[in-house]
Predict the structure of 2-hydroxyacid dehydrogenase.
Amino acid sequence: RVMRKTVLQIGGFAPEIQARIDAEFRCVGLADLEREPGLATEVGAILTRSNQEVPEDVVRRLPALEIIATCGVGYDLIPRALAAERGIVVANTPDVLNAAVAELCIGSLLALLRRLPQADRYVRAGAWKNANFALATSLAGKHVGIVGMGRIGKEIARRLETFGVALAYHGRTDQQLAWRYEPDLAALARDSEILIVVAPGGADTQHLIDARVLHALGPNGYLVNVARGTLVDEAALLAALEQGTIAGAALDVFDNEPDIDPRFFKLDNVLLTPHLGSATHETRAAMAQLMLDNVRSWFRSGRALTPVEPG
Ligand code: 8YV
């Protein structure tokens, strides 16, 4: 296969990653295609990030497109049905980010339960001199429900076992694991003090966590979302947080990132992080390497290393 040197890049990368991409490919952006439409015929690959949408109309304008390679495990913003129709392979970067997302999940959960951001502000404000910081909530001994027992869900479960919790999970199938499978999501929420959302985004899981599930989780329950904002009915979540239907939430993903609903900013029972799941030097370097290796492998052998099932 001829190695097409021109790629369409959607989204930005850290400078050290961009340097590696620029060393191997001629990157054009969406603005370049607008300015010089003839470039579209040269583009053999799209390089993107999993939190960026790959518009269908852009894919339709690229007659030589062979592969869409995303830096990330999620592919919910890639038009997979159109790619399959056009014979365009989609490749993601699974596994290399499992540990980073699991660490962010557990770090956020502990920070939420022990109210670490509030404690830090309390000390900085000099409030410690006047009183003791209010008692918080332990993780040990709690019932934790994991929604989505995929590769990242399993990494989270393995780590959580060392914290002395009771684990159960919900997903499409009973994987016959050491942890209890609960086919009914509302029942899992009812039986859990902590509900961790780590399922894939996309139409199939839209608003999986709705008012009914939040009510089942209850006033002593905490929600953690390190997957996609689309998995949660955000209007229901905001109401539940404002009305005490649930005790609190740690959220790394939202509707309409990065312009999230300002109602979150007024809440003291929520931990907000800016989609940091895979955001470590080591992990993003490994993801970028796998993204580039997918493109190289495709053009050299006609196979991507980590292709996504056709849409
Ligand atoms: C971010 C992610 O998308 O892997 C995913 O699906 O959501 C994260 O890794 C990151 O922006 C990927 O570049």
